[in-house]
Amino acid sequence: MTPHHTGKKNKEYCYYVSTDYLKVRHTAPSAAPQRLAAGMVEGAVVRELRRVLRSPEIAARTATELGKRTDTNEVAAALQDFDNLWAQLFHNERTRIVQLLVHRVTVTGEGLAIDLLADGLKGLASELMAPQEANA
After folding, report:
1. Hey, which end of the chain has fewer CB within 10 Å, N or C?
2. What share of the chain is helix, strand, coil (3-state, %, to 5)?
3. Rounded to two decimals, what is the model's pTM?
4. DSSP 117
5. How far, in Å, CA of 48 to CA of 30, rounded?
6. Is the separation of the CB atoms in 71 and 79 below 8 Å?
7. Out of 75-79, 121-125, 131-135, which region has the weakest mean confidence (pLDDT)?
8. Phi, psi of 25 (to 5 degrees)
9. Cα 38 from Cα 32, distance rounded (Å)
């Protein structure tokens, strides 16, 4: 899916359009939708990020990626603070974080499949832990 927008009466509407639709590929009637509201897709992606970042397995794997000097509990605490960070960010900063963490979002007739970037978790954890290290 590719982001698009249109305007009508001084209001902007943001949505995602199927790549198949843009390339005039005919799909089966039960296939994925051709257009989806941006808010719905973006909300689902952020909910999935929150769920993944709270996972103890992700914290342990990220701590390992960061190196021996990093404690898994510190990484877990930093990732748990994602909601607080997200609430404070401007739109452009949120976009950067999603681009850092998400490789691809695929829409099918059954729902969304979100592929994450493992290296992005390492970068995000480093940034989240920086304020904690400054306070130590």
Report:
1. C
2. 55, 20, 25
3. 0.72
4. P
5. 25
6. no
7. 131-135
8. -95, 130
9. 15
Is the distance from CB of 30 to CB of 109 less than 8 angstroms? Answer: yes
Residue from 59, 57, 84 nearest 71 by CA:
59
Q: Is 126 exposed, middle or buried (0-12, 13-18, 19+ CB in 10 A)?
A: middle
Q: Please, what is the end-to-end C-alpha distance for the chain in angstroms?
A: 43
**Residue written as tokens 């982001």?**
3
Any idea of the CA torsion for 96, 99, 102, 108, to the nearest 10 degrees?
110
Residues 25-70 pLDDT 10s = 666 655 677 888 888 888 888 888 888 888 888 878 877 777 766 7
Q: Angle 118-135/56-66 helices, nearest 10 degrees?
A: 80
Domain ranges of the chain: 39-135
**Quick count: other Cβ atoms within 10 Å of Cβ 19?**
12
Residue with tokens 């000097």: 69
